[in-house]
Amino acid sequence: MTKKDDVGYKKPPRHTQFKPGKSGNPAGRPKGKKNLKTLLEQRLRKTVTIVEKGRKKTVTMGEVVVAKLIADAAAGDALARRDLIRLMEGMIDKPETGLRIFYVDAEDQNV
Question: How far is the C-alpha of 48 from the C-alpha of 33, rounded, in Å?
Fold first, then answer.
């Protein structure tokens, strides 16, 4: 065998390689097909009408989900509390969230 005909790791046989200009996935992703992130963003932006304190109010689904998560956590649901804490941890000290947590050590507490 010559160097050109070597077959092995990352060296498929010449006859099985894609020909120039030919893709391994000719159909590809269909146009207009949405990924999970896009679908999630669209659904969370969708508006719904709710009744709060006897008044109708239009809010996004994202607002409804967050309000329910916070209400469940406040009511003592351990899983909701865990999820809320994880969300908050991901937001700490990111300028766009405005959530700042300052840690106070024992010496500062004494003062």
Answer: 25
Among all chains, which residue has been given the structure tokens 């766009």?
Answer: 96
Helix extents (H) in the chain = 36-45, 61-74, 78-91, 106-110
CA angle 17, 18, 21 (to 5 degrees): 150
Identify whether 82 is part of a domain.
yes
Looking at the 3D structure of the chain, how many domains does it have? 1
- Domain assignment of residue 70, given as a range: 61-93
For 18-58, how does the pLDDT look when each residue is reduced to its tens digit (9 = 90+)? Answer: 888 887 788 877 788 888 999 999 999 999 999 989 999 99
Q: Reduced to 3 states, what is the DSSP secondary structure of residue 98?
A: coil
What are 51-84's pLDDT values in tens digits? 989 999 999 999 999 999 999 999 999 999 999 9
Q: Would you say 44 and 62 are in contact if contact means Cβ atoms under 8 Å apart?
A: yes
Q: What pTM was computed for the model? A: 0.57
Cβ pair 60, 81 in contact under 8 A: no
Please indicate, yes or no, if residue 83 is contained in any of the structural domains: yes
